[in-house]
TrEMBL record:
Domain of life: Bacteria
Annotated keywords: ATP-binding, Coiled coil, Kinase, Nucleotide-binding, Phosphoprotein, Transferase
Protein name from the UniProt record: histidine kinase
Occurrences of domain Histidine kinase (ranges): 425-614
Domain Response regulatory: 8-123
Alphabetized SUPFAM superfamilies for the sequence: ATPase domain of HSP90 chaperone/DNA topoisomerase II/histidine kinase, CheY-like, PYP-like sensor domain (PAS domain)
Positions of post-translational 4-aspartylphosphate modification: 56
EC id: 2.7.13.3
């Protein structure tokens, strides 16, 4: 059966930022493709049909409703579920989306976990529907095959007596027919090897007259008359005078009106070797039974030929589930377990036979012990066993008691959760304290009229805020050791633009990939950006009312590159540039083990590069921002 990880989800939205978010959110569970508009969506779907559409309603050109209407009119695509993800939250839009054939309608903003659960549910339903279609096709093929088999069997039944005799002569079994007068009408040549008699001498004579009843007592007159009178078949195992054992079958053959036995069809088979093998199997079975009963894990087996009843239930399983073998053998899941648990077990049994592979399931069960009900946790490994024709036959399961492991794991997770909360609170308090320091600097700056003092306070305040933003992101994230630096740049540069823009037409452009940096590297990098961007706002556009400041951040080939540039007036003599900001930048670059290249060509450019292994987290080739 197809897995969710193999499924393809197509996200259709005109926002590249939202598409990037959805790719990052869905990629861990399935394959993802994206489209920026309706025509692109339809073109991509024709090349590879997805298993689920996640679609915005408001898009330029074709709306999400229009795209859904086209999909549902396409015979090849109409079965694919459509889920609207939109910021429109009125009931009319919801009803319209569902009436067009959508299976769901989720309103933005949404919880990531809720989206993932809904996507998984729709993908599971899609996979189940495809599995049912495949099963239906398989059943149709089985019906067709069985019909052909019945037709062929009918043709064989209608074969002539001559063909029957020819076949009987080629069998190792002795085949004969006796009429109502008790005499042999036909007898196969196997009578020579089985009983040492000549078939020609037996034809037309009774078993007593031919002496065959002395060689095989099952051919006595009393046995033959009982079959003629009662009309029931007789099956006997009898020893031969010359040694060995044979199985004798006396089958009544009725006339056209099915009211009277007109002849007896007899089959005699040598089963001496078979009985020897059965005795060996019984001996091996006793050995295996002892072995299974003493295994350190619970073992049970159900036989589908007897309605799925349990035929193996070892001592360890009785100890684990507090259900004895005497209670369990001959019973089914429904007889022994609550209905909800029994349904899960039957479902997983079916899955094991459908896939032909072992299925592992973790279950919980209230065990009735001496001190009352106690919840226990188990891991059940199911192994399917099929017969010679590949049909489901036996389901073998091994049961492991994992209660102690589950309890220990829960205690560990609880301890980790408490530590995460404590670390989150530490980041929150550090961020708050830094913001208090920033506010105090801002307050102090407001109490002086000296521009130099005010400027010094604002620079110090910017540096403090640059550190505070790192702790703010750590507080908001689930990871407390590294951050997505692109998010950090958005908040930091936005504050600098607001503080130093002074109403001028200065454009601030930020491009960054999805690289994550450890907090020990993120703070120095943030301070570097703060110093360089602030310096550009203050000095790069002297005498001008407009300009552009660019921040470019990326990782490639194991190195990280951070470039801050402007198209301002530049600097003629960089060697004389000894401001506190540039001094701070050089010190921070050395701190992260990097290098700094400064150039003045149509403005200023500061390029900082450092090895990625000084950071933590994950380096990704993500979309440019």
């Amino acid at each position: 059966m197809k897995e969710i990880s193999q499924s393809l989800v197509m996200v259709v939205d005109d926002s590249r930022a939202f598409l990037d978010l959805m790719v990052e959110l869905l990629s861990p569970i399935c394959r993802v493709s994206v489209a920026l508009d309706g025509p692109s969506c339809l073109a991509l779907a024709e090349r590879e049909a997805p298993d689920l559409f996640l679609m915005d309603v408001q898009m330029p050109g074709m709306s999400g409703f229009d795209v859904c209407r086209v999909l549902k009119s396409d015979q090849a695509l109409r079965h694919i579920p459509v889920m609207f993800v939109s910021s429109i939250n009125d009931m009319e839009s919801r009803i319209k989306g569902l009436s067009l054939g959508a299976v769901d309608y989720l309103v933005r903003p949404f919880f990531s976990q809720e989206l993932l659960l809904r996507v998984k549910a729709h993908l599971k339903l899609k996979i189940a529907q495809e599995s049912l279609m495949q099963e239906a096709e398989y059943l149709e093929e089985q019906v067709r095959r069985r019909t052909e088999e019945i037709r062929a069997a009918t043709m064989r039944i209608e074969a002539s007596e001559r063909e029957f005799r020819s076949l009987a002569e080629g069998l190792p079994d002795m085949v004969f027919r006796i009429g109502p007068d008790g005499r042999f009408r036909s007898i196969s040549g196997a009578v020579r090897s089985l009983l040492g008699a000549d078939p020609g001498e037996a034809l037309g004579r009774t078993p007593e007259e031919s002496g065959l009843s002395n060689l095989c007592i099952a051919l006595s007159r009393e046995n033959l008359m009982r079959v003629f009178q009662k009309g029931d078949q007789e099956v006997m195992e009898v020893p031969l005078l010359e040694g060995g054992t044979v199985e004798v079958r006396l089958l009544p053959e009725r006339g056209p009106d099915d009211s009277k036995v007109i002849s007896i069809l007899g089959i005699i088979r040598d089963i001496s070797s078979q009985r020897m093998v059965e005795e060996q199997l019984l001996s091996q079975g006793a050995f295996l039974s002892t072995l299974v009963d003493n295994l350190p894990v619970g073992v049970m087996a159900k036989d589908l030929s007897v309605g799925g009843a349990y035929v193996i239930w070892n001592s360890k399983l009785s100890q684990i589930l507090e259900i004895s073998a005497e209670e369990a053998l001959g019973m089914t899941e429904g007889d022994l377990f609550p209905s909800e648990l029994a349904d899960i077990m039957v479902r997983d049994d079916r899955k094991a036979f459908e896939t032909g592979r072992p299925v592992v399931t973790d279950l919980s069960y209230d065990v009735a012990g001496p001190d009352g009900l106690t919840v226990r946790f188990f891991r059940v490994t199911r192994v399917p066993i099929t017969d010679d024709e590949g049909a489901p036959s036996i389901l073998l399961a091994m049961v492991e008691d994992r209660t102690d492991f589950v309890i220990a794991d829960r205690e560990l997770m609880s301890s980790l959760h408490d530590k995460d909360i404590l670390l989150q609170e530490v980041h929150h308090r550090v961020k708050n304290n830094l913001q208090v320091v920033s506010s105090l600097m801002n307050l102090q700056a407001s109490r002086t009229d000296d521009p130099t003092v005010i400027d010094a306070f604002l620079e110090s305040r910017s540096r403090v805020l640059a550190m505070a933003y790192v702790h703010e992101l750590l507080y908001r994230n689930s990871q407390f050791s590294d951050i997505r630096f692109a998010d950090y740049l958005d908040e930091l540069t936005g504050t600098i633009s607001t503080t130093y823009g002074d109403g001028r037409d200065i454009s601030l452009e930020v491009e960054a990939d999805d690289t994550r940096l450890h907090v020990d590297v993120a703070i120095p990098c943030g301070l570097i950006v703060n110093e360089l961007v602030t310096n550009a706002y203050k000095h790069a556009f002297s005498g001008r009312e407009s300009g552009t400041v660019k921040v470019d951040f990326r990782s490639e080939g194991g190195d990280v590159s951070l470039i801050v540039s402007d198209d301002g007036v530049g600097c003629d003599d960089l060697d004389k540039e000894d401001s506190l900001g540039l001094t701070v930048v050089r010190g921070l670059v050395r701190q992260i083990g990097g290098g700094l290249v400064v150039s003045s060509d149509r403005g200023m450019s500061f390029e900082v590069s450092f090895p990625f292994n000084r950071g933590a987290g994950e380096m990704k080739e993500g979309a440019r921002r």
